[in-house]
Amino acid sequence: MSKRVLNVRNMVLAAMFAALLAIGGQIRIPLEPVPITLQTLVVMLTGSILGAQIGAISMMVFILLVAFGAPILSGGAGGLGALLGPTGGYVLSWPLAVWVIGWLTERAQQLRVWNLTLYHLLGGVLLVYAAGVTWLAYVAGLGWKVAVLQGALPFIAGDVVKAVVASIVTLGVIRAYPAIRPRK
Ligand SMILES: O=C(O)CCCC[C@@H]1SC[C@@H]2NC(=O)N[C@@H]21
C-alpha cells in the first residue's frame, strides 16, 4: 500500500467496490423484513482485497450516497429513511466489518482459503449479524427471538457459502494482481 491513502488508484478502487455493492443489492431474494442479497459477498471482498482503510472508506462513500438519496440499497431503496429503516443496522456495520476483515488480512503471513474464510465469517457474518439483528429488534420492535429468526437464521447457510466464494475470488485476484494485496 502506498503511503498516501487517498491517491487516485485507491479512490478508483474504493468507487469500484462501492458500485459493486450497489449491484450486489439488486441481486436478491426479497424476503421480509430482510432480503437475501449479494451485498455480504461484496463486503467480504472489499475487506480482503482493498484492506482496512480503503475498504472502510469505500463502504462509507456508499453509505453517504445512500444518505443523500441514491437508490443503491437492496431493491433500489435509498435516502435517510431507508438507511435508518429495519435493515439499517447491517448497512451501517459494513465499514467496521470491512475494516476488521482488512485488518486481519493485512496481518496474515499467508493467505489461504481457510484463514480468509475465517476473517470473512468474523467480520462479514458475526459482526454484521450482531449489528443487524440488534438494530432490527429495536427499530422493528421485535423480540430477540423473532429478530434472530428473521434477521439471521435465513442467511447463515448462504453467507457461509459467500465467505468461501469470497476467499477463492480474493486469492484469484491477488494471484492475478499481486501488487493489490493489502499488507501491514
Ligand atoms: O436494505 C439493504 O440494502 C440491506 C439488506 C441487508 C441484507 C442482510 S446483510 C446480511 C444478511 N445476508 C443476506 O443475504 N441478507 C442479510
From TrEMBL:
Keyword Transport: yes
InterPro entries: BioY
Subcellular location: Cell membrane
Molecular function via GO: biotin transmembrane transporter activity
Assigned keywords, A-Z: Cell membrane, Membrane, Transmembrane, Transmembrane helix, Transport
CC annotations in GO: plasma membrane
Family: Belongs to the BioY family.
Name of the protein: Biotin transporter
